[in-house]
Amino acid sequence: MSIAVVLPRALYPYARGSSTLVIDDPCSTVQDALSAVGKHWPGVLDRVMTEQGVVREHVNVFVGEDSIRFANGLATPVDDGDTIMIVAAVSGG
Amino acid sequence: MSHPSPTNGDTLLFVGTMKGAFIFSSTAERKEWTKHGPYFPGESVYSLAYDERGGKKRTFAATRSFHWGSNIRRSDDFGETWSAQDRQAVRFPEGSNLSLTQVWQIVPGPRDEPEVVWAGVEPTALFQSRDGGESWSAVDGLLNHPHRPQWTPGGGGMCLHTIVPDPANKDRMVIAMSTGGCYRTDDGGATWRARNVGVRAQFLPNKYPEFGQCVHKIAYNPAREGRLFLQNHWGLYRSDDWGDNWTDIANGVPSDFGFAMQTHPHDPDTVYIVPLQSDEFRCTPEAKLRVYRTTNAGASWEPLTNGLPQADAYETVLRDAMSADSQKSAGIYFGTRSGKVYGSPNSGDNWQNIANALPPVVCVRAAVVGTSAASLA
Questions:
Q1: Exposed end of chain B (fewer CB within 10 Å): N or C?
Q2: How many CB pairs under 8 A join A and B?
Q3: Residue A40 has pLDDT above 90, yes or no
Q4: What is the per-residue pLDDT for B373?
Q5: Which of B210, B212, B231, B347 has the alpha carbon at shortest distance from B282?
Q6: What is the pLDDT of residue B377?
Q7: Any bridge partners for residue B368, and if so which?
């Protein structure tokens, strides 16, 4: 199984400079995939999710072109070959 | 980008803004200032601290990315390099159902325990580090306080914004939160008692509840043990018994609403505030930027205006945006939401503009290098 996790530039430093993480661990949901990210790149996960395991308010997670906010959240299913994209929301002050 | 390279006796002014931090450096005379930064551009920096305990010269910065969360960063070379901090160091424990929003206050601990540092955070909690700020743990006595369900957020969020350790008694500490009010521990953090007798809660049906007040800042000078000054969401107070009782000292101020409050470093009877018009119009009254000073512990207050704009100045000074250095002729400093920073090298008698167009200023901390004197909250 292979899932790609595409990062925004702000998170490259926490992924040892990488722009894309490749997850080989078995995953059936976004939760599984992000847990795998946390196992290998904990600094990335800290910035995507709070310490209580909730995706941060101003972070969007997509599977393909679909936001998990409008799917099943962290329970959104993933398949081999999927791409998860992490994006900073268009918000700020 | 240049970084400060101060020698002993020089003055540093740390300024946190909504979009990064700056360090201003000057000599002991403080006639001219050099700006360094921005550090952490794009991130808000609500708390800064400078710590010389244990022979180090460490700057702490509480950073918050709008998107990616909050952290505490450290620099031992005046901002040239910062701790990498891969993980979020301040973390609420599992089962608390709380997540860190941001750090509002960083305060060095006792002089003889140079690795102890305190942090006040949002949502309301107190954290302690015992390794110089690398790792942090929540103080359970406050985290599990029975009043917690009734603490509610003020306009800035539900934050613990003021930490006043007693330098003479490690078991005693006063903290303040918005809202919730003032609490004190006398047993090293195991238990905390609300200490708000006499403090008004203008916005509640019961104006004098046990807790629930919106304290904006508490200031302390250890030279007068147990005497605290408090700027409330409406109300100016003094306590002479570590917060057991509070007395109204709003004598001759244009408004008793405000945020910032700072004690003089050498005179425990002298305190500075910047009154604001009201909670609905949080700007300086009459569009005059006036610092008010008492030199008699609140019996009377005088406006300080030399060098400050006295027309068309609709300014706001937030709770942590005022500080003092420990030079012989004490420096007093403040920053505004409009991005201006002012300083006085003579205890407030005369003011100079140090910066004019920073992002909104939320935090100011001053320090004299080589004195081991960290600027307290």
A1: N
A2: 51
A3: yes
A4: 54
A5: B231
A6: 40
A7: B11
